[in-house]
Amino acid sequence: MKKGIFITFEGGEGCGKTSHINALAEYFESVGRECVVTREPGGTSLSEKIRDILLKNGPEKTMSPRAELLLFEAARAQHVDELIIPALENGKVVLCDRFADSSSAYQGAARNLGEDAVERLNRFAVNGAVPDLTVLLDLPAREGLARANSRDNNAPDRMGSEKIAFYEAVRGAFLKIAALNPGRFAVIDSSGPKEETFSKILETVKDKFNV
Ligand code: TYD
Known about the structure:
Layout: E1 5-11, H1 17-30, E2 35-39, H2 45-55, H3 65-89, E3 93-97, H4 100-110, H5 115-126, E4 133-138, H6 141-151, H7 164-180, E5 185-189, H8 194-209
Parallel strand pairs: 1-3, 1-4, 2-3, 4-5
Residues 13, 40-41, 55, 72, 97-98, 102-103, 106-107, 148, 159-160 line the site of thymidine-5'-diphosphate.
């Protein structure tokens, strides 16, 4: 039986997920809740190996979109079984940097694999672990890419090397998924100062979970 809190963070490149997740983890710890911070693709030894295959700029650059989707889902299945479900069963707060909605937006929409195919695979991979809250950090694709490029010294990973239209499709898809799932999603504008964005996230979390 699930007793913990499962919060996922989604958004395009450079939307600032990582720093907000760390700040939120500090908040949860300060109120006495044990917190697990994790990410996708990744979070377990096997899933981090799959992450390397997915993100590095090697000969894998020509990866088939279907193979790409299945690798993201394989990494997710391992992550859910080995880390997320046990942590939730132990009453922990799980903060996850990207989850199944990223596959819907990047592979389903931007790579054109279709919502239904991705939805089915997502359901299989998550094995019932549906987030209690998904924070979508929204900003224009171009702004996010500029932030990501300055962070990565203009050396983007494989998934960060697409044309602007790809990231615009990702953004549109996230907003559409959020609109279809208003009970689970909080859409937060992350184009302003970091502190402002974080206070909106914190307010949302406090309201929803009474923490
Ligand atoms: P991430 O480490 O969050 O990178 P960034 O900080 O640049 O956003 O995510 C890795 C990349 O993998 C990112 O470009 C999004 C992509 N991705 C997918 O395409 N599908 C997925 O299911 C997941 C989890 C990530």
